[in-house]
Amino acid sequence: MKLCLLFTAVLLLANVAAHAQKAPFTAAEMLKLKRISEPNVAPDGHAVVFTVGVVDVEKNGQDRQVWIVSPNGTGLRQLTREGNNTGARFSPDSKSIAFISTRGGSSQIWTMDADGSKPKQLTKLASEADGVIWSPDGKAVVFTSEVYPECNADDACNAKLIEAESKSKVKARTYTSLLYRHWTAWRGKRVKHLMVAQLEDGVVKDLTPGFKFDVPPFSLGGGGDYAISPDSKEVCYAANLDEDQATSTNWELYTVPIEGGEAKKISTSPGADASPQYSPDGKWIAWRMQVRAGYESDRWRLVVMDRESGHINVLTENLDRHVTGFTWHPDSRRLAFTVEDRGRQQAQLISVTGGGVRAMTQGATHVDDLQFTSDGKTLIYTEVTGASPTEIYKASSSGGAPEPLTRLNESFLANHDLRKLEEFTVTGAEGAQVHSYLLKPPNFDGSKKYPVLFLIHGGPQGAWGESFSYRWNQQVFATAGFVVIMPNPRGSTGYGTKFTDEINGDWGGKAYEDIMSVADYVAKLPYVDADRMAASGGSYGGYMVDWIAGHTNRFKALVSHAGVYDLASMGGETEELWFSSWEFKGFPWQNQEMYDRWSPSRSAANFKTPTLVIHGELDYRVPYGQGLQLFTALQAQKVPSKLLVFPDEGHWVLKPQNSLLWYSTFLDWVEEWTKKP
Asked: Given phi > 0 = left and psi -120 to 50 = alpha, else beta, which region is 220?
């Protein structure tokens, strides 16, 4: 018995020692992770190509290269090395790969053999190229290029105007319409057009000649908004041709012959239509659709159109969740799609005629990038968790345990202390159930009392869940010694349309009550020090931090990143005006009472909590004047506060060295105000 007890004690000590030897997962360590994206399965199923990004802190950027792996997980290797190389796509015969490369000094289309040999430059456009896809007959590629509308595909014309504009000493801008700037850039004279290039002779033709708006429209998700028919005769693309681009979300789908010609509108919804995909047999086009005009967060539905009759059938009308992506099954009779649900994203299968759905990735956390092998027997996808970044997996389409194809970060993660997310639910405003995630710090000891850090998500139509962000990484915050709380209050997605829509016109109402209910629950946890809680958030999360500052003193410190402070001025200087006019039922001069009611600036006299204000000068979504106003109000009232401004960042802080400063400043602030007396 004594020997048994001794053996058990030794095992426990060994386990504790092994756990203690793991390195802390700091922001600097996080930047060492390899970032997988853009997987593409070869039509013959012999391989998967994908992009791997590796951060170079010294160069303050990210090196992105094309890698390849076989469907059984062998043969993993890097194919490209010179320049940045992204967006790799197999040719229809699986013998070649097209990709975008900067190795020649500009962004152009290159091809190489499937083994990475014989790289060859396909385009040499002054207007550059991006987003390449193959025609199914292998004779052409379709891509985008930023051209002058008067030049279209005339490269000599584009080159002449690009040179003249770069040499001009006058940098002034003149506008006569809205959406004069977007996200992080002012609108220039060039627009994104859809092009086709023939591989035989390299001739480039503009499929959207004369268009004065981007095709496809700007999207933070990027890509996937144009496709080529299986017979290689037609291209379908998304475009928003409404004159008032700042107030319209009405993306429509158009088809055009691949050799060029008159475009035909095929969609009918007053909301956005996006992500078109032809069925392998060419009988159908599927896409994602929203139905409410002007509401960018309307529920995305999966629809299919019979190309012969033009009849459109909404497949997921009775599924009260967002369809976030999809792919056709090779038999053209079924589609696999992803849906967001309670912080997770799962794959489901549905018939082209609608009806019931079948879960395909039960037990998974957050899957994306769905693709079938050509025989339809295997589903290839990416998966991410709250404790691990993206890797590529495969699973039998008929069910079964998934198998990883890549393990690029496996050894790194094994040597670092990352923990799984926990979940809890509380009763919020009007009796609604509010779901949240919790992460405990490394070497957690339930007998101790820990400080708490609330992370409030943006959107407001967004959600925390089983995902891995490099900008607001919960593991980094937990490593600093905090119990991290990630609430999904009213407005969050993945909990049904009603729950999401209840944020509209009620920004500081039920959502605030939901978060306070979560705070009440957390404060009573036996391992939490209720006197050492901090709250932080970005975008809408920053708004909520600003609102909290004027309505409660329960938090010892606040961090407002890119937060909305004054709704009236925000409504006059943000770019996507459909957002504020939907959320607050009109423009500031049309509904002043609502703008005043929910503006944190109206409660500035109540500010007492020490607050860190962070903003990027290139943020045109929530312009940095919002942060300056907040900091002014804090300083004028002698409230302890600090302002961190990034001249070279927008709504998101992306450059590696800036990211390190962001994390260190953030953590220094909350640690200063939540440390034990």
From this structure: alpha
